[in-house]
Amino acid sequence: MEKPVFLIGFMGSGKTTWGKKLANALSVPFIDLDHELVNKIGMSIPEYFQLHGEAKFRELEKEMLLEQENRVGILSTGGGTPCYFDNMDWLLSHGTVLYLKHSPKSLFNRLSNSDIQKRPALQGLQGEALLAFIESKLNERAIYYDRAHIVIDQINTSLEDLVALVK
Ligand code: S3P
C-alpha cells in the first residue's frame, strides 16, 4: 500500500470499526481523525462544540486533516470531514477514498443503538426526529460522499472483499 486509505461516511456507518479491521488485516497503522482531534484539544467533541461552536471545530478538523499529509495506513474521518472547505478534493488527491454507504433507515437503526451523547449533532434526537435529521443531512452530504473512489454497500461486503479492493 503506497497511499493511505481514507474511510468516509455518515455518523454510525462503521468507519472506526471497519477501519481497525481493515488495518489489522493489511498490517498497516490505523488512524482515527476524531481521536487525534480529541487528543489535540484535550476535551471531548461535544464539549468543544459547546465551548467554541461548530465553525471552529470545522477549522480544527481541516488543520488535523492537513497534518495527515504523509501518513500511511487506514485513516477514518469524522462524518462531516469531507463536506467542508475543499476537504473532499484534498482526500481524493492524497489517497484512496472509500465511502461506507448506508440507507437512512440502516443508519437510523445503527445510531439508535449507539451512544448518541458522543455526537453533538444528534443530541436530543430520537425516533421520527432522528430519522428525519439523518435523511436531510445525508441528502445534503451525498454530493460529497458520492465522489469517493470506491463506494461500499457495507451490508453486502465482506472484510475480504474490502481488503482485496484496497490492497
Ligand atoms: C460529525 C461526526 C463525528 C464528529 C463530530 C461531527 C458530523 O464523527 O466528527 O461529532 O458532523 O457528522 P463520527 O462520524 O466518527 O461520529
From TrEMBL:
Molecular-function annotations in GO: kinase activity
Binding residues for substrate: D34, R58, G79, R141
Pfam families, per the entry: SKI
Sorted UniProt keywords: Amino-acid biosynthesis, Aromatic amino acid biosynthesis, ATP-binding, Cytoplasm, Kinase, Magnesium, Metal-binding, Nucleotide-binding, Transferase
Enzyme Commission no: 2.7.1.71
Binding-site positions, Mg(2+): T16
InterPro entries in alphabetical order: P-loop_NTPase, Shikimate/glucono_kinase, Shikimate_kinase/TSH1
Catalytic activity as recorded in UniProt: shikimate + ATP = 3-phosphoshikimate + ADP + H(+)
Cofactor: Mg(2+)
Superkingdom of the organism of origin: Bacteria
Residues the entry annotates as binding ATP: G12, S13, G14, K15, T16, T17, R119
Enzyme kind, highest EC tier: transferase
Cofactor note text: Binds 1 Mg(2+) ion per subunit.
Primary site of residence: cytoplasm
Subcellular location: Cytoplasm
Pathway terms, separated by semicolons: Metabolic intermediate biosynthesis; chorismate biosynthesis; chorismate from D-erythrose 4-phosphate and phosphoenolpyruvate: step 5/7
Similarity remark: Belongs to the shikimate kinase family.
Function: Catalyzes the specific phosphorylation of the 3-hydroxyl group of shikimic acid using ATP as a cosubstrate.
Complexes and interactors: Monomer.
UniProt-recorded name of the protein: Shikimate kinase
Native organism taxonomy: Bacteria, Pseudomonadati, Bacteroidota, Sphingobacteriia, Sphingobacteriales
